[in-house]
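FAQ: What does the model actually see?

It sees only this:
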Amino acid sequence: MAGVDWDTAQTLSDEDLEARLYRPALPRGSHQLAPDLSVVHQEIKRPGVTLMLLWEEYATGNPLAYKYTSFCIK
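And it is asked to produce this:
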C-alpha cells in the first residue's frame, strides 16, 4: 500500500503521486554472452552457412550462450 489517501493525492503533483505509487524501474541485467553480430553478418553471406551452424559454433563450450531462438532474434 502506498499510504496515499484521496485528500493527500489531491495535493500532490502528478510526478510526486507517481513516485509514491510506483517503484522505480529496475535495470535489466543479462548474464548472457552476446555473439559478435558483425561476424555473424559476414559469415551468413557465405554459401552453405546457416544460422544453426553459426549458433552451434557460438554455443559450443559457452555456458552463457543465448539459446538458438534468442540468437536468431538478435
